[in-house]
């Protein structure tokens, strides 16, 4: 009973800490938004479609996420990279990528791509066994191609429009359709079914920190208006993934 009481008390304290961080980040984001001049050029009269009609709100949420990242996530990622040797970080990355292949396989089948779905399913079986729970990736050396699929892409293949660009608190860039697909992605995430719950939560935190650490090396590539950079990069990458890399080149016929 005493242990349970301490755990409950610790959970309450953690929720208060997260609330304070969130409120602090949100206040700093609002302050920056009030003091920063408008940076967007006026939209062109010829523009037929605006992918970002909620830009004002999205910018505030983007700044909120940036502040929260500076306060919590980036320091954790730096510590993760500094403490753990590269081969350990590589094993952690392979472990989570192996879990992701379950969702990849399901969505490939739902998109009518059985060969790709079978490839991802075979990757899960091989990497979970020969690869010792996914810590290694022998499936890639066996020429089994990894595909990156999710329910947002599946909905797009089914003809559902992607909807406006949307920045989610803590989660970052998205679209309305991608955001709607997130709960479905969670259903096919094996971590969701891990018990006890504290083990599951540790894996969730480790996954987030590992992903943030993997992005440290590309931070220097960001230039210009950070918000527009992330927005355009996200939307272009999503189009690339939805079309399986078959993005049309409007200038192809000129050469």
Total count of domains: 2
Strand content: under 5%
> In which order are the strands of the major sheet placed?
1-2
Judging from the principal axes of the Cα atoms, what is the shape? Answer: globular
**Integer average pLDDT:** 85
Give the C-alpha Rg.
21 Å
SSE run: HHHHHHEEHHH
Report on this model:
By secondary structure, the protein is mainly α. The chain has two domains: 22-33 and 52-83 and 160-243, no CATH class; 86-149, no CATH class. The protein contains nine helices and two strands, in the order ααααααββααα. The protein has helices at 2-35, 55-83, 86-110, 114-129, 138-141, 151-157, 176-187, 197-214, 226-242; strands at residues 165-168, 172-175. The protein has a two-stranded antiparallel ribbon. A hairpin with a 3-residue loop joins β1 (165-168) and β2. α1 packs across α2, α2 packs across α8 (197-214) and α3 (86-110) packs antiparallel against α4. The chain starts with a helix and ends in a 13-residue tail after the last helix.
Secondary-structure map:
Elements lengths: L1 H34 L19 H29 L2 H25 L3 H16 L8 H4 L9 H7 L7 E4 L3 E4 H12 L9 H18 L11 H17 L13
Antiparallel strand pairs: 1-2
Helix pairs in contact: 1-2, 2-8, 3-4, 6-7
Q: What can be said about this structure in brief?
A:
By secondary structure, the chain is mainly alpha-helical.
Keywords summarizing the entry:
single chain, 255 residues, mainly alpha, 2 domains, two-stranded antiparallel sheet, 9 helices, 3% strand, globular, disordered C terminus
């Amino acid at each position: 009973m005493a242990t349970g009481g301490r755990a409950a008390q610790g959970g309450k304290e953690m929720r208060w800490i997260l609330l304070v961080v969130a409120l602090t980040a949100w206040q700093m984001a609002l302050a920056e938004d009030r003091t920063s001049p408008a940076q967007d050029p006026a939209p062109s009269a010829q523009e037929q479609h605006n992918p970002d009609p909620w830009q004002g709100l999205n910018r505030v949420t983007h700044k909120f996420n940036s502040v929260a990242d500076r306060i919590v996530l980036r320091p954790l990622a730096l510590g993760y990279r500094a403490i753990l040797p590269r081969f350990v970080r590589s094993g952690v990355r392979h472990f989570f990528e192996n879990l992701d292949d379950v969702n990849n396989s399901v969505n490939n089948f739902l998109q009518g791509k059985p060969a790709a779905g079978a490839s991802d399913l075979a990757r899960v079986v091989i990497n979970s066994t020969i690869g010792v729970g996914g810590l290694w990736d022998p499936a890639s050396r066996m020429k089994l191609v990894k595909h990156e699929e999710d329910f947002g892409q599946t909905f797009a293949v089914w003809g559902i429009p992607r909807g406006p660009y949307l920045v989610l608190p803590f989660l970052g860039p998205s679209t309305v359709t991608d955001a709607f697909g997130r709960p479905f992605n969670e259903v096919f995430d094996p971590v969701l079914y891990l018990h006890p719950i504290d083990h599951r939560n540790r894996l969730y935190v480790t996954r987030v920190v590992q992903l943030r650490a993997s992005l440290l090396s590309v931070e220097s590539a960001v230039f210009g208006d950070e918000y527009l950079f992330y927005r355009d990069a996200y939307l272009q990458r999503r189009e690339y993934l939805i079309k399986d890399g078959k993005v049309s080149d409007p200038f192809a016929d000129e050469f």
